[in-house]
């Protein structure tokens, strides 16, 4: 491989998941078989969000494509590991053959949005090492890490409250008005964390003269991507469970059926102004033939720290100020964390599970064939696997 046998970034203790105010620590390893003349080895820490999509329209024989984009920067920090300082003049140093390990440390800001990846928009955090060479291409190595914004449900006013919502729709049958279909949806509470179950209570009454094809409950994720000139909205079904047909004049009862919550980012994506994320639970009635579904929605809060009252149902001791020390769980893709911010409750540690939407390609515009590192990446999210949750309700992610 020429002069450079090894060039990589490693985090201390393999930790690549961080919370606000924590230190990103590790070392850059360089292994040379021949000397290299360079300006410096620098390390770049970057955090930011980007939204980008294109839309095409045709006029006659001409097709126009318009690109919508926006971006935010949360931090940019550079440190020099070897060689000349960024503003330093003088001769370029030579690094002799051998093995080198350069330690680094960078403290993250306390308030940042959680990592998020999609084909349209992202919140991404990276560390990039660069061997800056005069009059030659630079060697680069990049490592992406996850940041989690700690959304504590115990601090959310409505998280522990129950909710009820109802809806009604009048059907038409052969140009004659038919009776209505009505639905009531009830939730025990509004706040949940990934790994928990949502219990669905409700009732559907079909007063029409038509048979309804089915009813179903689902957890929906709505993401809004904002640019100065346009907003794009994408909706994704995360978890779903179905009931069968409802005969004319019949009822359908939901009595605590379970919807699971997969590993997804917390609600709102706090701190990001160009991407918004909300979650809703819906009870839906699908009419046979022509006609729009009756949809009864309740917005919920997806957090990263569960309600104490819920945690105690699983035998957790009474809460008291403490630090959380998450541990590994070998059957799930995750990473260990040395500590979380202080003053959290004495709750069981979560696993850290790969995003339900899977890995994405993290090549950036300035990457090329000389950029090293794993370019397949997925954020991980806090996941509380306290019981035998119903993963059978998860909907296959869109590709």
From TrEMBL:
Q: Name one GO biological process term.
A: protein transport
Which GO cellular component terms are attached?
cytoplasm
Matching entries from SMART domains are given as: Arrestin_C
Ranges for domain Arrestin C-terminal-like: 177-307
Q: Which family does it belong to?
A: Belongs to the arrestin family.
Name the chain's protein.
Answer: Arrestin C-terminal-like domain-containing protein
């Amino acid at each position: 491989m020429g002069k450079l046998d090894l060039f990589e970034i490693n985090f201390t203790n393999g930790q690549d998941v961080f919370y606000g105010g924590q230190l990103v620590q590790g070392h850059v390893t360089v292994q040379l078989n021949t000397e290299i003349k360079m300006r410096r080895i620098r390390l770049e820490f970057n955090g930011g969000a980007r939204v980008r999509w294109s839309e095409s329209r045709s006029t006659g024989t001409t097709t126009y494509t318009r690109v919508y984009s926006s971006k935010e920067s949360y931090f940019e920090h550079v440190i020099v590991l070897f060689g000349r300082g960024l503003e330093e003049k003088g001769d370029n140093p030579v690094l002799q053959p051998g093995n080198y390990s350069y330690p680094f440390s960078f403290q993250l800001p306390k308030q940042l949005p959680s990592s998020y990846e999609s084909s349209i928009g992202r919140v991404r955090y990276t560390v990039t090492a660069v061997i800056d060479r005069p009059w030659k291409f630079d060697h680069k190595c990049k490592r992406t890490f996850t940041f989690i914004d700690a959304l504590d449900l115990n601090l959310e006013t409505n998280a522990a409250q129950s909710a009820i919502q109802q809806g009604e729709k009048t059907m038409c049958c052969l140009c004659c008005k038919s009776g209505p279909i009505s639905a009531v949806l009830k939730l025990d509470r509004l706040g949940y964390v990934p790994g928990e179950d949502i219990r669905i209570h409700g009732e559907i009454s079909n007063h029409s003269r038509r048979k309804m094809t089915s009813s179903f409950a689902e957890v929906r994720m709505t993401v809004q991507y904002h640019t100065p000139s346009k907003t794009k909205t994408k909706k994704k079904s995360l978890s779903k469970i179905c009931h069968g047909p409802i005969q004319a004049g019949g009822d359908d009862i939901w009595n605590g059926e379970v919807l699971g919550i997969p590993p997804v980012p917390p609600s709102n994506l706090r701190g990001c102004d160009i991407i918004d994320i909300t979650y809703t639970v819906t009870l839906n009635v699908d009419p046979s033939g022509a006609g729009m579904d009756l949809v009864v929605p309740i917005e919920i809060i997806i957090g990263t720290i569960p309600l104490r009252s819920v945690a105690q149902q699983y035998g957790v001791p009474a809460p008291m100020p403490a630090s959380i020390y998450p541990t590994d769980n070998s059957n799930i893709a995750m990473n260990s964390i040395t500590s979380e911010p202080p003053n959290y409750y004495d709750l069981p540690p979560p696993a850290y599970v790969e995003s339900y939407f899977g890995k994405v390609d993290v090549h950036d515009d300035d990457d090329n064939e000389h950029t090293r590192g794993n370019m397949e990446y997925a954020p991980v999210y806090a996941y509380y696997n306290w019981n035998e949750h119903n993963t059978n309700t998860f909907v296959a992610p869109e590709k």
